[in-house]
User: Fold these one by one.
Assistant:
Number 1:
Amino acid sequence: MSAGATAGRAGTKGGGTSHPALLPVDEPSLGAVRARFLRERLSQGRADRTPLPRLVSTGRTGSGKSTLGNLLVGCDDLLRSTGRHDCTDAAHVLRFPRGLSYVDLPGVAGDDRLENFNRVALGMAQVPQWPLVREMRVFDYEERRCTGERTHPAAGFPADLLRPDLVLYLIAPHQGLGRAEKPYVKDMLRAVGSERVLFVLNLFHGPDGRRTATPQDLTETRANLDRWHREVGLALDSSRLVPMDCRSGAGLAELLSAARDCLGGSTALGEVVSYQHERAPRAYRAEVQRAVVGFAAQVAGRTPASDATATEVPEVAARLLAAYAGRLAGEPVNTAGIAGAAGSGAGRHESWLKAFTRLAAREVATLRQVATEPVVERRSKDVYKKVPRYDWVKETDYDRPIYETRRRKVKVSPGDFDEFLDGVGNWLGGSGFVAERWITEEVLVGYKKKKRQVVVGHERQYVRTDHWDETVGHREIGVAYAPLGPAGVALVLTAWHAALAALAKDGTGNLAAVHREIRRRIDPLGTAPDALAARAEELLPAKTVRLLEAALRTGETGGAR
């Protein structure tokens, strides 16, 4: 990555617009990470005691000389850095255990006496028309504290006390190069030599993370330096212009690398640069992961307000993370890219954001809680009873027989004399010796009839009307959602995976599977931000980490910028 690109990535707190409901990503600064390792290495002693160069900073007041010194030490207030004119009226020498010395001189192009102070320190003649410097005060610092103060007469000032191996001329491009600086810069180039001067373009950044210097400011600064070089018979080497942010540390590694090159490839200084180069990328990646996990953790406590906005928080978080991924890689994330793996059929041309939104809708739906009430209707029913219908019928009454008295003759054995005579006569007549006798008898001639009622059918008879309330169903009276919780955190981290995959044009693959894996890792930890951030590197799948590394490599080489 170019120094300009590095400086442009100074630490910003979520550079870009955040959603009112979400805090922005607390973006770490690669420059700050590199500066941390550079400070760490400079604070370590060397066994061979090989001295590192003496870097002498000079320039206009407010250009960042003291800020750069504080950055190297890792202490915000060791050197006074108010930005007011002429707030430094002595030379401050910072000595590091590894052998590097950094000298902070007073500002120029303001107080004429203090500019003469700079001229004496750099072995240049004082301007006689200005107040002459009689004494040179020098403060020494070691291990983040002032260890002594010395005063030397200007006339007999030891030449090697502040003599620079390399001069760092700091410029704040947004302030412009003033005409008052021109004589000093030209005299410095003649006295020191352009090969021993680096121009540090201190790219200040505002609270919103945006650079205060405009492209026009940088163009004008370069044009002025180029003209001043030509006026003293020199050519401006563009490699001697090093952009950085002296407050955040973005570009410090590039500054020390440029210093190494100016000093003929100083192995001691190169070793300091290599030390951070070996360690900073991994540490920066870990800080990015912690920042992303910390950003995702805040989602756990968010609760969807309604069906219409149920997926709003995950979607906004996805867009913020996509923008952050784009800043890391130096190129925007394509929200209309391929969502599925190459050759995955119908879904291959679908936006990864649409695929994520569908996943978010499914997951958030599981948190939906519906309040219902019964639907009751008034019902009624007529009650009838079955009543028999009767009719009269006649039938034979076998219990009431009908008899008739009848007379008839019967042949009987003679019983008396008369019958004897009849018998003799009948015998003589050939009918046998029998007599005929009249008898009376009761003969059954039928039965009487009787009447009775029988059931011949039934009919319905109204009894009453019953009324009652009946539940015929339920209706929704309200919808509420549970907090997004671990599912929401996993969703946001899944969006991070998808955005990185879109950057790599690798296809997001099965986002549901990625979400399940991340959710499985989150569940045992809960949703406390500190707990999640502490285990950030364990929460993301291996492929997500590889995609992040690829994005960071793209950013290192300048991306599409």
Number 2:
Amino acid sequence: MKDEKINELRARFMAGGMSRRSFMRSLLATGMAAATATGIADRAHAAAPKRGGTFRLGKGHGQTTDTMNPGTAENGYMVNLLQTFHGYMTEVGRDGSLEPGLAEGWEASDDGATWVFDLREGATFHNGKDVLPEDVIASINHHRGEDSTSAAKPLLAALTDIRADGDRRVVFELESGNADFPFTLSDYHIPIGMSEDGAVDWTTGIGAGAYKLDNFEPGVRADLSRNENHWDLGNRAFFDSAELLSVTDTNARTTGLQTGDFDAIDRLDLKTVERIRQAQGVNVHSVPGTQHYTFEMMVTKDPFTDRDLRLALKYAINRQELVDKILFGYGVVGNDHPIGQGQRFFNKEMPQREYDPDKARHHLKKAGYDSVDIELLASDAAFAGAVDAATLYQNSAKGTGLNILPVRVPNDGYWTDTWNVKPFVAVYWSGRPVEDLMFATAYKSGVPWNGTRWSNERFDELLVKARAELDTEKRREMYYEMQEILSDDGGLIAPMFASYVFGTRDRVGLPESFASNWDMDGERCIERWWFT
């Protein structure tokens, strides 16, 4: 218990929650010798976050078609940017738990169909205006309605009413219970913007986050400066300013890290990661999480309309080879569904689909083909090594009758011109903190980001039932079945889950652990890291 207390005190001190004098006094109160307490305090002070400097982050994402509309954001650059200058009702913490954001607390009705959120006193937008219920209502309604094209529309589809209850309270009414609804409001598409006449003008760039947006050039850069009036300034926003740079060329990004032009970069080239690790002043970090690399088939386009053809493609891919040669061991094999091994309701009982050319030939015959030519579009914008992965897939499928033809397409515009447009493409997903969000975002019938166009009545039925079920074991059974349905019937080929692998310079101060819900410490590195 004493060690736990000391660790708790150290964490509070390093987070800025107590002075050095209070820290020392608390250590001595545990019965610790003065010399020992002084040593611990000195080491903690040296490691504690310090303010100052301009942080330069090179991201392997971003495109010229990016906009300030949060509902259309679909790459890691925009996730990082939005979460840096916008405020959210709730936030996902480093340990995956839900933490208060602009909402300081919430509670649900017994059936989970009514949720009441209390807004935080002192939370303001960058222009000094208080964050009020009317801003929350306008921000949420931006994603609703028949004409909405927001990726968050399906996440809020069950919302029947949203209303203010006084100056600081917002009430959400759902058509049925949702035990994970507070997690929904942490989604990066759903920040709280400043409203005027019932609507939010997202182009202003005014947010309620820890940093202010000073400049934004889509597909190039964004410049940010600390919001000195943020409600949680003691625990975040240690850099004075930040430059967020879109650098999709892996070599340019890596060179920038090694020369010190960048303080940190994401998506390290796994082919050369060990050499990068040896570079002076560079540190490499690997974080397992929910990120998965996939190939998506549009089941509304021939030949993917046939379930046996889809199964043939799933058996024709050598998953372990991809983990070994594309991820270089920084990941694990996938099972054609998007739920990671560390998640609450990962189906541990489901047999792993193995590489089996004989079964691939069998299902291809059942689909009515002796052989078929299939184009597979890929780009490094999808994931590092995507084109190589497509070539390995082509080789593993040889002899099965599946003639896979890899096609390299441009990085820029990949997420507007290729993904969700072409019938067979390489894709990366960062996953979601809870199963409901992942399934609702990409696999529910008719949602905008259902790139496979797959629709399954039983799956949709279970999706609604599982989110409303408060009994953990019953929810588990439902989510297990959903993973099986998607794996056996869907248009998703998910051969591998990839660890997040990123690099930092020596001068970057880091926490003891990283969030795993997104890359780069939950895509909140700008507000969570510091210079030593």
